[in-house]
Amino acid sequence: MKKILVTGGLGFIGSHTVVELQNEGFDVVIIDNLSNTTIDVLENIHAITGKKPEFYKIDLRIKNDVNSFFENHTIDGIIHFAAYKAVGESVQKPLDYYENNIGSLVYLLQEMNNRNIDHFIFSSSCTVYGQADNLPITENAPTKPAESPYGNTKQIGEEIIKESCKAYRLNAVALRYFNPIGNHESIKIGELPLGTPQNLIPFITQTAAGIRKELAVFGDDYPTKDGTAVRDYIHVVDLAKAHIAALKRLITKQNKTNFEFFNVGTGKGSSVLEVIKSFEKVSNTKLNYKIVGRREGDITAAYADTTIANNVLNWQTTKSLDEALDAAWKWQQKQ
Ligand code: WQD
C-alpha cells in the first residue's frame, strides 16, 4: 500500500483530500503545524473513513524537524497543501509568506531528492493568471505578475518545482485551484476560517447565521452580467478527487513531462449576486447584504477551461454550486 504524506492535511482542502486518499486505499500520514486548523479535524476524518491517519505536529520551516520526519518514514509520494493563503494578510506580512510558503517547499523538495521520493502534487492557484485576457482560462494562458505576495509564492513555487524536476528525478503536478467551496456530505469536516472570513462563502454563511451583521459585496461596477465579479466555485470534494487523479497519473507513470499543471475548476463562472441568490434558495433565508466599493487586488472574472484536466486526468466535477452552498450552510449551522 502506497504511503502518502499530506502536508497541511488537517486544513480545509487537505482534510478532504485525506478522506479521498483513504477511500482509495492509500496509507496516509499528515504533517500539520495547526496554525490554521484544529486537532479535532483528525478525529473527524477518522469518523468519516474509519481509519485514523498518522499525524505529526511539525512546522515545515524547521529543517531539522522535516529531516528527522523523513529519517523515520518511508514515503511514496507527497501532496503539499501546507502554506499561508490569505491574500490580504500576505500584503501586510510578505516575509512570513515567503519564509513559510517557499522555505517549506524547498525543504520538502530537498528531502524528495535525497530519498528518491518520486511523486509530488502541489497546491497552486488560478491566481497565477491574474486577470486573464481570455475566458475561460486555459493552461497556456500566460501567468501575470502576481497581485499579492501570496499569489507570488504560488508562481515562484511552480518555478522552483519545474526547475527541481528538471535537475533531479522528480515528477510533479501542480493543480491550479479556482475557488474551493462547500464540504463533505457528512458535515464532519469543512472550512474553518479563523477570525473574520476573507472568502465569500464563509462570510455568507456567517451572515446568514447572524454571526456577521451583513455581507459587503465588493463592487457592482464590473463589466459582467450583473456588475459583480465572476469566479469559478468548485466543490471541495471534486477538488480533492482531482488530487487522487493526479497522484495516480504519476504513480502509473502516465505523465508526459516531469512537471505538469492543470486548471481545476468547474468551467462555469458565477457572479457574487448569483451566488447570493443560490444561497438564499438552498438555505431558504434572505441574506442581508449591501453593495460597497471594489476590494483592492480583485479581478473582474476568472473561470476555468477544464478540457485538459477532464481528458488527461480523466476527472470531472460532479457537484453543483447549489450542493456546495447547501453543504456549507449545514456545516455553518453545526458550528
Ligand atoms: C470571491 C468573490 C470578491 C468576500 C481568493 C484567492 C485564491 C483562493 C480563494 C487561496 C470576489 C467577493 C468576497 C466578501 C465579496 N485563496 N467577495 N465580499 O478573491 O476570488 O480568491 O480566495 O487559495 O487564491 O485569490 O476569493 O472568496 O475572497 O472572493 O464581495 O466579503 O467574492 O470580491 O469577487 P478570491 P474570495
Question: What are the main properties of this structure?
Answer:
single chain, 335 residues, alpha/beta, Rossmann fold, seven-stranded parallel sheet, two-stranded parallel ribbon, 11 helices, 40% helix, binds UDP-4-deoxy-4-formamido-beta-L-arabinopyranose
Protein architecture, described:
The mean pLDDT is 97. The protein has 11 helices and 13 strands. With 335 residues, the chain is α/β, with parallel strands linked by helices. The two termini are 36 Å apart. The chain has a domain at 3-181 and 234-265: NAD(P)-binding Rossmann-like Domain (Rossmann fold), CATH 3.40.50.720. The site of UDP-4-deoxy-4-formamido-beta-L-arabinopyranose has 18 residues, from helix 7 and strand 8.
Topology (elements, then pairings):
Blueprint: E1 3-7, H1 12-23, E2 27-32, H2 40-49, E3 54-57, H3 63-72, E4 77-80, H4 87-92, H5 94-114, E5 119-125, H6 149-167, E6 171-177, E7 179-181, H7 200-208, E8 215-218, E9 230-231, E10 233-235, H8 236-251, E11 259-264, E12 270-271, H9 272-283, E13 289-292, H10 307-312, H11 321-334
Parallel strand pairs: 1-2, 1-4, 2-3, 4-5, 5-6, 6-11, 7-10, 8-13
Antiparallel strand pairs: 9-12
Helix pairs in contact: 1-2, 1-8, 3-5, 5-6, 7-11, 9-11
Bound molecules: UDP-4-deoxy-4-formamido-beta-L-arabinopyranose.
The Rg value, from CA coordinates, equals 19 Å
Strand content: 15-25%
- What's the CATH class of the domain at 3-181 and 234-265, please? Alpha Beta
What would you call the structural class? alpha/beta
Largest sheet: 7 strands, parallel
Cofactors and ligands present? UDP-4-deoxy-4-formamido-beta-L-arabinopyranose
Secondary structure tally, helices: 11
- Mean of residue pLDDT values: 97
Q: Order of strands across the widest beta sheet? A: 3-2-1-4-5-6-11
Do you know the CATH topology of the domain at 3-181 and 234-265? Answer: Rossmann fold
